[in-house]
Each structure stands twice: as structure tokens, then as C-alpha cells.
Design goal:
ABC transporter involved in vitamin B12 uptake, BtuC, mainly alpha, 66% helix, 375 residues, globular
Length: 375
């Protein structure tokens, strides 16, 4: 045992130091010469850095093709709201996107990067087709219920497969998810070209269209099926409440911070991780059911259409905060739908929307690193 040593007593405060010290001036300097940043500027610094960097990179890409950035941004931002039809398309894209992003908030909170969300959506779409093909004579509301149930189960089981590889085989969920994505896409392609091919000949365009009475009901002649955004918003509300108001949500956050420490404190870390993955797969599978019943009305090889990866970008941008998942999902859907008009209006490929979305995430991560850097 080290010998104890008497600590020197602190010096007595001088008369000038007694009492309450004066607060540092707002926006001024502390005694050591360090600049004090106003509270409002500190709050806005991160989003401003992110937006400035993303716009700068996207503007350079547009200028390199000889296109006016202002015109391109106007179409990207407002194009989805230029007509009822485009607005409907934006909502029908935002609904499955919101479901995927909502599910990913759970896996991110548990400390996992669920890159297999695309495959979980595709498996959900394949599972949703089963009652439609096996029980086509059932009443439409019952068939829709079965489709959503089968899709949720298929997506959850596909996610649990990735979780099992992570927990019991030591395979990173990133590589497991990517491999399962390819497997799910291959299965969808096999079904489209094989057992479920169109009568007469196989077609890469997809299976036979569903009968009109099995499509989700829409508003008038628009492609907007109200059930899709209702399901997505309800899922977001449930996940938000679970994460903030339940013991399960608290334990999930504890596992994400330090799984080993949480396990020592009595939290079943493996079980919580598996549950978070299953819940994410469940929501992604329901997004697949929306793609079948409300968007494409058939199974196509690329049934996910990048919705899962777009949800991943949205979740990264908001740091898995469910409060911001909805507005960012709507913004990303607006960019995607608005970009469809770019080839006709300006002769620019619609993939520029992906450049802007990816740049937002990239510079958000970079800005967080710079802001949190000490000194």
C-alpha cells in the first residue's frame, strides 16, 4: 500500500474572488482567451456545415456538366410538389423508406449496422406474394392482412439469420447483411424468371400484374394509397414510444453503448440484439408488402429499388434519432421523385439526387468529427 500523503490545503479566495463570479460575455472571450460561441450558433453549426459541404460538392458536379445549379436545385426540391401525381409518387416512396429508416433506428441503437435491410425488404416482398398466389379467392382485406403478416415474418426471419451469424458465428453483420442481400435478390430473380414467370414467356419486367381489386385502394385516379403512409407513421410512433418510454428501449440503448457492461448488469444483450434485428426486418418486410400491393402490383427483380439503402442514408444522417426520421425521409423521397424530371428539363441524369443525398451523409459525418474534435 502506498503511504498516504497530506494534500496541501487550497488557497483561500481573495476578497475580489468571493461571491458569484460574473458570467462570461455572450460571444466574447473567456479569461484564457478562448472564444465563446453563442448557443444558437453552436446548435446550427453542424447542420450548416453539412448543408454547405453537400451543396458545394453537388454544385461542382452540376457545373462540370454545364448545367445551372439553381435550376437543378429548384427541380430537385420542388419537383415532387409540382403536381398531385408527383406528390402521390413522393408519398408512396416515403412510406416504405420511412419503414426501413424506422427499423434501422433500432439496430443502430443496439450498436449494429444492418446493411441487410435491402434483402429483408426483398424477402418481405417475396413472402407477401405467397398468399396472393396461393389464396387469390379470399376477400381483399383478408388477403392484404395476410400479405403484411407474411411480409413481416419473412423480413424478420431474414434479419434473424444475419443476427445469428453475428452472435454465434462471429460474422460481421455488415458482411452477413450484404451477402444476404445478394441471396434475396437472386431468389426474387429466380421466381420472376422461373416458377412465377408470366404465362407464355419469362420477362425481366416482373410477374403477372395483380388483379385491380387486390391493389391497395387509392385516392381517385392518383397512385396514393393512404394505407401505406398510415402504416409507416404508426410504426414510427410505436418505435419512438418504445425507445423513449420503455425498459426495453433503455436496455437496447445500454447494449448499444457497451454490450459487455450491459450484460454484467443483467441485461440480456444477445437477446436484445436479436430482437432489434428482427424488429428491423419486420418493418423492412412490411415495406416490401407496400411495394407489392401499392407501388408495382407485381414482383420485379429489383423490388427494393434502393429504398433500403436510402433508409440507411437517412438513418445515418439523423444519427438514428426517431424525431428526425420522418422529415429526412420525406426530403429524400422528394429529391428522388423530383430528380426524375431532370433528364427532360435539363438533360441531366436523375442520379444527381443520389449525389446530393450521399453528400449530405458524408459531410454530416465529417462535420460531427470536426465539431467533436477537442480544441
Amino acid at each position: 500500500m502506498l503511504p498516504s500523503r497530506a494534500e496541501p490545503s487550497p488557497p483561500s479566495p481573495s476578497p475580489a474572488e468571493e461571491g458569484n463570479p460574473a458570467p462570461p460575455p455572450a460571444g466574447g472571450r473567456l479569461g484564457g482567451g478562448r472564444q465563446v460561441i453563442p448557443l444558437w450558433l453552436g446548435t446550427l453549426r453542424l447542420p450548416l456545415l453539412t448543408l454547405a459541404g453537400a451543396l458545394a460538392l453537388t454544385t461542382l458536379a452540376l457545373l462540370s456538366t454545364g448545367v445551372s445549379p439553381l435550376q437543378a436545385y429548384r427541380i430537385l426540391i420542388f419537383g415532387a410538389f409540382s403536381s398531385p401525381s408527383r406528390f402521390s409518387d413522393m408519398i408512396m416512396l416515403a412510406a416504405p423508406l420511412l419503414l426501413c429508416a424506422t427499423g434501422l433506428t433500432l439496430t443502430f441503437r443496439s450498436g449494429l449496422y444492418n446493411l441487410g435491410v435491402e434483402g429483408q425488404l426483398a424477402l418481405g416482398a417475396v413472402a407477401a406474394m405467397l398468399p396472393l398466389r396461393l389464396l387469390p379467392d379470399l376477400p381483399a382485406p383478408l388477403l392484404w392482412t395476410l400479405c403484411f403478416a407474411c411480409a413481416a415474418g419473412g423480413g424478420a426471419l431474414w434479419a434473424l439469420l444475419a443476427a445469428g451469424l453475428r452472435l454465434y458465428a462471429g460474422v460481421s453483420e455488415i458482411f452477413a447483411g450484404l451477402g444476404l442481400n445478394f441471396l434475396a435478390s437472386g431468389l426474387a430473380l429466380y421466381l420472376v424468371l422461373g416458377p412465377w414467370r408470366r404465362s407464355g414467356s419469362a420477362s425481366m419486367s416482373g410477374t403477372e400484374l395483380l388483379p385491380r381489386d387486390l391493389w391497395l385502394p387509392t385516392i381517385g385516379t392518383l397512385r396514393l394509397a393512404p394505407l401505406a403512409p398510415i402504416v409507416a407513421l404508426a410504426a414510427l410512433a410505436v418505435v419512438w414510444w418504445v425507445l423513449r418510454q420503455t425498459r426495453w428501449g433503455l436496455e437496447l440503448r445500454a447494449v448499444g453503448l457497451n454490450a459487455e457492461a450491459a450484460e454484467r448488469l443483467g441485461v440480456p444483450a444477445y437477446r436484445r440484439i436479436a430482437q432489434a434485428m428482427a424488429a428491423c426486418g419486420l418493418l423492412a418486410g412490411m415495406a416490401g408488402a407496400i411495394q407489392i400491393l401499392g407501388v408495382f402490383h407485381q414482383l420485379i427483380p429489383n423490388i427494393s429499388s434502393g429504398v433500403g439503402l436510402l433508409g440507411l442514408l437517412a438513418t445515418l444522417l439523423v444519427r438514428a434519432d426517431p424525431r428526425w426520421v420522418l422529415p429526412v425521409s420525406v426530403v429524400f423521397a422528394s429529391f428522388t421523385v423530383g430528380s426524375v424530371q431532370l433528364p427532360l428539363a435539363l438533360g441531366v441524369d436523375s442520379s444527381i439526387a443520389g449525389v446530393l443525398q450521399g453528400a449530405l451523409v458524408l459531410f454530416a459525418l465529417l462535420a460531427r468529427g470536426l465539431v467533436s474534435k477537442p480544441g
